[in-house]
Write a structure and sequence with these properties.
By secondary structure, the protein is mostly helical. It has one domain. 63% of the residues lie in helices and 0% in strands. The longest helix has 39 residues.
Length: 62
């Protein structure tokens, strides 16, 4: 029983470390996105847009 508890605790600690690392990575990525958006300015897209070359749309009905 004690071995099972010890093993469970070790797995739980490992999972917590993985979760902490994932959260840290997400925090870094959100920070990078925030920096990119603040540097780019408001009201404009981050990529160039392309006008629809066909100038019409198609509709599919079922």
């Amino acid at each position: 029983m004690e071995d099972t508890l010890t093993q469970f605790m070790q797995v739980s600690i490992a999972n917590q470390k993985n979760t902490d690392a994932s959260i840290k990575n997400l925090e870094v990525q959100v920070g990078q996105l925030a920096k990119l958006l603040s540097e780019h300015g408001n009201g404009s897209f981050l990529a160039t847009t392309q006008v629809n070359p066909k100038e019409h749309c198609n509709l599919i009905t079922i």
